[in-house]
Design goal:
- Helices cover 25% and strands 29% of the residues.
- It has two domains: 82 residues, no CATH class; 57 residues, no CATH class.
- It is of the alpha+beta class.
- It is built from four helices and eight strands, in the order αββββββαββαα.
- It has a six-stranded antiparallel sheet, with no helix packed on it. Strands 7-8 form a two-stranded antiparallel ribbon.
Length: 153
């Protein structure tokens, strides 16, 4: 989810970009870059591994920190950026994950209104940026994300 948040706000919180030719072999990146345990980094220019990951001495994790990264072995010319993601953004990412888990099906549903003989009535929230005007996580958390938003380039 962190990568989707960074894309939505046009801000990856880049601290130090490292450009060059990199190799991933057996889950290790060489040449290595200086990362602290728990620090996130962003791979770009790769054919197989573009994305946000979390560095741990025990191994690299996906940006959501819930499963193995599954880095594919490859050599590429590109960029690895050390990130300085604020703790508040990480916490907000967890809140957004919970919101998506709870509301994801409703947002994806094509139904905006339903009525069954006056017994049951359902109307989906509208006015959002999603399909059919559905409220998306970007809409629901816009006011909290705006403080980190950058102008798209």
């Amino acid at each position: 989810m962190l990568q989707q948040i960074c894309e939505a706000i046009h801000n990856y919180f880049i601290k130090t970009p490292h450009c060059g030719t990199f190799e991933i072999a057996d889950g290790a990146i060489s040449p290595s870059i200086d990362l602290k345990d728990g620090q996130r980094f962003w791979i770009t220019g790769s054919d197989l591994n573009d994305g946000v990951y979390t560095y741990h001495a025990a191994g690299i994790k996906n940006d959501d920190d819930t499963k193995a990264a599954g880095l594919q072995d490859e050599t590429w010319a590109g960029t690895i950026c050390a990130l300085a993601v604020p703790p508040a953004v990480s916490a907000l990412s967890a809140e957004i994950n919970a919101w998506v888990a709870k509301n994801g099906e409703a947002v994806a549903s094509p139904f905006t209104s339903e009525s069954v003989l006056g017994v049951y009535s359902y109307q989906k929230a509208t006015g959002g940026s999603g399909a059919g005007g559905a409220v998306t996580w970007q809409d629901a958390f816009a006011s909290q994300l705006n403080r980190w938003r950058k102008v798209a380039f």
